[in-house]
Amino acid sequence: MGSMVSGLADAVLGVVEGVGLSADTVARYGKCCEVVVEFCDRRGFDALSDKVTDEFAACQQERARCGEIGRNRRNALVKTARMMLEFQNTGQAAWRMLRPDPGLSASSREVVEQFAAAAGQEVAPGSVRLLAGEIRHFLAYLGQVGRGSLGAVTVDDVRGFMVEIAPRRPAGIGNVVWSLKRFFAFLNAAGISDVRVDGLLARAAPRRVRALPCFTREETGRLLEGIETGTPCGKRDYAMVALAVSTGLRCCDIVALRLDEIDWRRDEIRLVQAKTSKPLVLPLPTPAGNAIAEWILHGRPDCDAPEVFTRLKAPFVKLGNSTGSTLMRRRLARAGIDHVARDGKSFHALRRTTGTRLIESGAGQPLTAQILGQARINSSSRYFALASEQIRQCCLPLEEFTCTKEGLR
In degrees, to the nearest 5, what angle opens at C-alpha 86 toward C-alphas 82 and 89? Predict the structure, then answer.
């Protein structure tokens, strides 16, 4: 059979070996290549195509559903097949860190792309990514229950999805509802489905918003002091935390910060925010600048990655989306700061800390929103809830109110 598919497997394995991954990881991808070749051999495929790759992905999804393989194994197999298809179509393949794939068909991925393109005309890029992610999970659920066509989806399917996902998303169910409403509005407008979900997903009460905490000055000091700066990992973590505390940048923007976005002569950072796609120019404070310089000069691996902060093990690429939570779990424990799930003491709490300190220093809402790169001025109002001294100054005096009951005197 297919010496072509075998050749693609050899080419992809060469790409994996060239990245500098460990021998064990290379061996695992070698096994994945063997599975793809064996699949094509059994089915009589002499070459790969989108249809063949989708069929392979569906097969691995079924194996995962039956418990034959785990989710990570499924993702590695599907990723290998897609790299082989990429090499067949373009003559080259790039090894990259991919987000977990829920196992969508080509038609479902196309619908998600069309939906994301339509949503991009109305909401910020960060919101588009959120919408697309939630809808991918919904479409994966439809595939699991055997609903092959969006035109055949019913309100009961939507209800079943909500029942399944609600226990896993207690804090993010509002995003799920919002995403489904927008998605079905898109399907209705495109004539793909006539199902109306507004009644099913109507909110009976406004969402309760919890004021998540920021770090105290003492906790911020302990957090920074607890990071050992004698190792490359410590230099990187210290630089990231110092940058977050001094500028209020989001974790996604710190992870994506490029070397050419730092103007060392002017001590400025110039970037385009991932959430809003709006440009932002911020001064680079000396402590944060020194920490970044120490990381670049004495901790950062010698690599071609354009990002400032990279992995410490091969492949030397930008950090993943879970970097912030992993960093904080590691550093909060060493700093002796108590932390439990959903207590708000996350990497994003460093941004809340910066916003609160700005309000406490007398900066108004417009200036705070401008420094933090927020699209709306009202977004900075949440930091007033954390500025205890400023709230205390807003209390009304009680001297003018006459006490009418003896027991209250």
Answer: 135
The C-alpha angle 385, 174, 382, rounded to 5 degrees, equals: 15
What strands, in cross-sheet order, belong to the sheet with 268-272? 262-263, 268-272, 279-283
Q: How much is the pTM? A: 0.70
The residue type at 142: L
Q: In whole angstroms, how far apart are CA 333 and each of 60, 229, 253, 338? A: 39, 16, 25, 7
**What's the rounded Cα separation, in Å, for the pair 227 and 331?**
7
- Average pLDDT of the segment spanning 194-207: 77
Instruction: Decide: residue 131, CB within 10 A, 0-12 exposed, 13-18 middle, 19+ buried.
Output: buried
- Of 300, 268, 306, 272, the C-alpha closest to 286 is 268
Residue scoring higher pLDDT (99 or 84): 84
Give the whole-angstrom CA distance, residue 217 versus residue 214.
9
How many residues can be counted in the chain? 409
For residue range 139-198, what is the model confidence (pLDDT) as tens digits?
989 988 888 788 889 999 999 999 999 888 876 788 999 999 999 999 999 999 999 998
In degrees, rounded to 5, the angle at the alpha carbon of residue 49 between the alpha carbons of residues 48 and 50 is 140
